[in-house]
């Protein structure tokens, strides 16, 4: 039995081994599609040259997954295009080529709708933060065919806030129509050009405008913040880049992934596909896009502190009175959540804005103490005591800190 099984494994491995003829077919097909369809003709030529230059390396590869990964790395090294990928996926191609009845299509659509509903179409969390600041954690840009009702309900829920923070730090993209719908809530009824799209193969240009009609209330004049990270990609980047350069949003966080252009999946043969960027997005203001560069934030910070930085900025721009009390309350809310670093950022801002308030320094001292930062805690409590010599809490904490080694 062991001999028979071993022979079966060896036979299967040989079956999966790539032959020179198939590799040549795949590479030739890639070069043809690059020259015909890739968004940048000059880069397409450079990638073709790179493929030819590396032909001897490909000769040594027999594993199909390694082959597709190597091709992808070579193409991306020249193009810096993270959308451009070669994949080994024979099962997907086979499934795609099967004849599907209308009934099966309907059932597949229902299944997709159910799966999307289970994750609330990417609308993970919507809430009103202290100070009447709206917060939306959006994990994907779902097709409005499924998600329009949820998107509309969410935007209406946030419509009475003083500012809105949209968290795209874990959003890897999706479809343009959701980007169009959400963007439309930040403009009035007059259509605004959001993006041009140019297809090199057909030499045609299309345009995407904000919608004339949206259900419910628009938020056209309040501050909008978009949180980003290195993981923010594709349609999520389009949303951030579009609103930033149309003067509608402040981007806070990290430089994003850098995938700007629309892609299509092309079958190279019966086993390999390529994800081919074929339509170039062009912003009406910058006349370019974020491909390979990412969306650069207006307030640059790390992924972890993006929310608190946006939150503090929103409070500074919208709070009409009692800002000192409000920031203190927000700081303690972060402490309660054990987000000590965020609390410190809030208390430090409060101390910067209200340096003559003893309670502000006392709160900052408490946050430093919880963070085991004896030096800064002591400085803060001494500042609080200097401003209010009768503060018993500051006196007690100074005594406590001075005996800590």
UniProtKB/TrEMBL annotation:
<dbReference type="Pfam" id="PF07719">
    <property type="entry name" value="TPR_2"/>
</dbReference>
<dbReference type="InterPro" id="IPR019734">
    <property type="entry name" value="TPR_rpt"/>
</dbReference>
<feature type="domain" description="Tail specific protease">
    <location>
        <begin position="105"/>
        <end position="302"/>
    </location>
</feature>
<feature type="repeat" description="TPR">
    <location>
        <begin position="358"/>
        <end position="391"/>
    </location>
</feature>
<dbReference type="GO" id="GO:0008236">
    <property type="term" value="F:serine-type peptidase activity"/>
</dbReference>
<dbReference type="GO" id="GO:0006508">
    <property type="term" value="P:proteolysis"/>
</dbReference>
<dbReference type="InterPro" id="IPR029045">
    <property type="entry name" value="ClpP/crotonase-like_dom_sf"/>
</dbReference>
<dbReference type="InterPro" id="IPR005151">
    <property type="entry name" value="Tail-specific_protease"/>
</dbReference>
<protein>
    <submittedName>
        <fullName>Tetratricopeptide repeat protein</fullName>
    </submittedName>
</protein>
<keyword id="KW-0802">TPR repeat</keyword>
<dbReference type="InterPro" id="IPR011990">
    <property type="entry name" value="TPR-like_helical_dom_sf"/>
</dbReference>
<dbReference type="Pfam" id="PF11918">
    <property type="entry name" value="Peptidase_S41_N"/>
</dbReference>
<keyword id="KW-0677">Repeat</keyword>
<dbReference type="Pfam" id="PF03572">
    <property type="entry name" value="Peptidase_S41"/>
</dbReference>
<dbReference type="InterPro" id="IPR013105">
    <property type="entry name" value="TPR_2"/>
</dbReference>
């Amino acid at each position: 039995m062991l001999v028979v099984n071993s022979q079966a494994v060896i036979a299967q491995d040989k079956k999966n081994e790539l032959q020179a003829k198939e590799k040549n077919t795949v590479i030739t097909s890639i070069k043809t599609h690059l020259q015909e369809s890739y968004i940048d003709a000059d880069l397409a030529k450079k990638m073709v040259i790179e493929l030819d230059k590396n032909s001897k390396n490909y000769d040594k590869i027999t594993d199909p997954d390694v082959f597709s990964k190597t091709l992808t790395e070579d193409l991306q090294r020249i193009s810096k295009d993270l959308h451009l990928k070669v994949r080994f996926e024979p099962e997907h191609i086979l499934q795609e080529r099967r004849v599907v009845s209308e009934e099966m299509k309907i059932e597949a659509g229902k299944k997709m709708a159910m799966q999307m509903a289970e994750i609330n179409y990417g609308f993970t969390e919507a809430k009103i933060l202290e100070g009447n600041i709206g917060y939306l954690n959006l994990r994907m840009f779902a097709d409005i065919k499924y998600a329009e009702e949820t998107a509309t309900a969410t935007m209406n829920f946030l419509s009475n806030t003083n500012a809105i923070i949209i968290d795209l730090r874990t959003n890897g993209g999706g479809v343009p129509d959701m980007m169009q719908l959400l963007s439309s809530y930040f403009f009035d009824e007059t259509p605004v050009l959001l993006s041009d799209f140019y297809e090199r193969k057909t030499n045609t240009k299309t345009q995407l405008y904000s919608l004339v009609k949206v259900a419910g209330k628009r938020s056209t004049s309040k501050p909008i913040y978009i949180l980003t990270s290195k993981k923010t990609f594709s349609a999520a980047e389009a949303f951030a880049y579009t609103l930033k350069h149309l003067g509608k949003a402040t981007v806070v966080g990290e430089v994003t992934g850098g995938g700007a252009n629309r892609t299509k999946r092309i079958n190279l043969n019966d086993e390999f596909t390529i994800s081919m960027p074929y339509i170039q997005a062009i912003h009406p203001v910058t006349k370019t896009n974020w491909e390979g560069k990412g969306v650069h934030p207006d307030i640059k910070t790390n992924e972890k502190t993006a929310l608190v930085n946006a939150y503090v900025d929103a409070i500074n721009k919208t709070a009409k009175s009692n800002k000192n009390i409000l920031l203190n309350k927000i700081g303690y809310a972060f402490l309660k959540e054990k987000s000590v670093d965020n609390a410190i950022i809030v208390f430090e801002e409060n101390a910067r804005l209200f340096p003559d308030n003893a309670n502000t320094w006392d709160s900052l001292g408490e946050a430093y103490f919880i963070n085991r930062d004896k030096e800064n805690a002591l400085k803060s409590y001494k500042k609080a005591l200097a401003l209010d010599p009768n503060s018993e809490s500051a006196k007690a904490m100074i005594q406590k800190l001075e005996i800590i080694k």
